[in-house]
Amino acid sequence: MQVEVGPDDPRLGDYVRLRESSLRRSLESERGLFIAEGEKVIRRAVEAGHRPRSFLLAPRWLPGLADVLARWPDVPVYVVDEAVAEQVTGFHVHRGALASLHRGDLPPLADLLALDRVVVLEDVVDHTNVGAVLRSAAGLGWQGALLSPRCADPLYRRAVKVSMGAVFSLPWTRLPGWREAPGLLADAGFTTVALTLADDSEDLDRVAARLVGGKVAVLMGTEGAGLSDHWASSATVRARIPMRAGIDSLNVAAAAAIACYALAPRSAS
Amino acid sequence: MQVEVGPDDPRLGDYVRLRESSLRRSLESERGLFIAEGEKVIRRAVEAGHRPRSFLLAPRWLPGLADVLARWPDVPVYVVDEAVAEQVTGFHVHRGALASLHRGDLPPLADLLALDRVVVLEDVVDHTNVGAVLRSAAGLGWQGALLSPRCADPLYRRAVKVSMGAVFSLPWTRLPGWREAPGLLADAGFTTVALTLADDSEDLDRVAARLVGGKVAVLMGTEGAGLSDHWASSATVRARIPMRAGIDSLNVAAAAAIACYALAPRSAS
């Protein structure tokens, strides 16, 4: 349903000031929405079952998304030129297409604990890193992700974008608390592998060679501080990626890619 | 040498509109400068031998950088409050410290070709990806990087920042041309490993198991298109990271981290 609007129209309220992350965090959680950017990502969001609240499109994106819009005839489609989009959102919308979607419910924790390969993030607060980790995990055949309460929101626009939509295809949910997380995973039958440079850590390759089959959860902490002592010491095994002396630790997204590759379920070769 | 300046002072010309990448690219190449952001990165740049042109600092950063400034008594230090810094640069400078430095000369190609483990990037045009690849390569013990003529500039502010200064510690240079690059590497004695999802590629693990010692160059292309057919087919071997069906390729920075990990020189274990 195409609707004419100007830049100050209150119906564009879902899209205001997309670069102001603290404003957006409270606005999106209050209204239970998130923003998808670009035709491909919008398409993946609706295909994953997220119900659109509205679309904000430059005219040239109408044909490409016609089938999506037709599935939701009652959802408003705000067609604006790129200058108006920029005035509302506060930045140049490179891909010219935005959608506001309902968050819906996260899957229950029990569904995630029933899987065989899950990534577990402790306090990764950067949206780019969360999105990048989920993309790599999905691409490398992991089945789900668990996030500590303080992790950044995977449905934040930047995380969605960096994940290339993996935040929709890879099941994920929040852990109910931080302290009890390692115990929860152990009770569910996971071998927990903590990624850490701690002195008692083993080379990741050796850990990977021992882990044949079974349920595996890899635990990664925020960069800078890395995993907490509590999570690292509670894990079944501590694994390190061999690093060159004197170099800062890898970015958490790079470390996650390596760990998901090294610990992925392998067919016998 | 502390200098008083206002926001419109022409002496701040090195720092204007840092978010406008096309303006910055021409300005920085014309003047032979690059911008380092944050105390840690500035420190690494000067320690790596880059000569500062000037500093732009909020007052609270003066003590922390006092030793660096003392080494360059004739270099102007523009002390401004954060509002002025924002007015000049066009964004909020989170770390409150900027430096403009001379680029200096890149190392000769022959120096890079004499190494044993180099990463070779073909047309990776995103600064974030270039910075992330160099950071992972340095952290995982690779010795240098070669960039095709169209790759993004590792000394662009965003690349420098994402690399955590690895663009200063890891030797890198430009390839003189695109077409002859695979031949150059072969002539220099490298086994060239092309990262590709081409049909005739082998699992990366198998390739890694065969490569014991010797000179190794890993070739990676831009995401989206991936490596060109020319580079992929000219390489000694084509390696693939096993991916889950239906998932987009990994981000090039994630793929690079995995390849640098899998093909890193290993001590016998």
TrEMBL record, chains A, B:
Q: Name its GO BP terms in alphabetical order.
A: methylation
Presence of keyword Heme: no
- The highest taxon in the source lineage is Bacteria
Which of UniProt's keywords are assigned here?
A: Methyltransferase, Transferase
Domain tRNA/rRNA methyltransferase SpoU type: residue ranges: 118-261
**What Pfam family is a match, any one?**
SpoU_methylase
Q: Can you say what this protein is called? A: RNA methyltransferase
